[in-house]
Specification:
Length: about 280
Amino acid sequence: MKKSASETKETWKTIFLFLAIVLALTSPFHYAIVNLYPSRIYVGAIMWCPAIAAFITLKIKGRKISSLNWNWGDWKYIRGSYFIPAFYGIITYILIWTFGFGGLANEEAITDWGEELGLFGIGTLNPPSITIIAIILLGTVEVIRASATTLGEEIGWRGFFIYELRKVLSFTGVSVFSGLIWAAWHWPLLVYYSNNVLLEFITFFIVIISMSCIMAYYTFKSKSLWPAVLFHAVSNVFIQKIMPPLTMKIDGTEHWLGENGIMFAIVTSVFGIYFWRKAMKEKL
């Protein structure tokens, strides 16, 4: 049923109320990250601001928190939300190794990784064993830990925000608009960490909009916020914790590596287009 002009206006008012609250809540922590230090305390606080903003917005609008999609959803979407980000992270680094933008980590690098994770405390392990155990631990325990913070983001962005957008925008509009907002919301971290701000802003926006398309697909198909929580956590772990230690950097190719790298932007955009086409075909 087509929405009336008043209903559309009310939805947009709700959307901008939510965004204003997100901005108000995150601004002190954005300031702390840029001017003090991007500690995990500040980053963790920021990641829970969208959830708090969603709860406040629901309260103001007289809606219940239970109206969010807390149900677990179909397991096939949970599985997909684990394997898709793991898959695109692995593909990204296979391409980096193949084209010579980075090399496979040597035994010394793997040994350092094992020492960092404390794996030498469980016996004598060779580099292949360290690699396997580290990937298993990071791909399970670290994903669970990371989900505690991505839950805060996803309650707000996928649990509330994109469902409001869906009332007034198409799937394409939801994916692009939410992606632009989500990417812009990360600007302090980009400013603090970027070596080439312009390039990394471009690649990061491509990555985030592509991820938004995939995550919107899984969220709407599952009618649950949990696939997005898992997807976000797995993506962070693979692209930040698992694949970089397995890669030796090569001078002059740094802009191809990492979550703000050119290769990750290329790979995620391919995945994003695939899921966008899938959503169009399924009239999502």
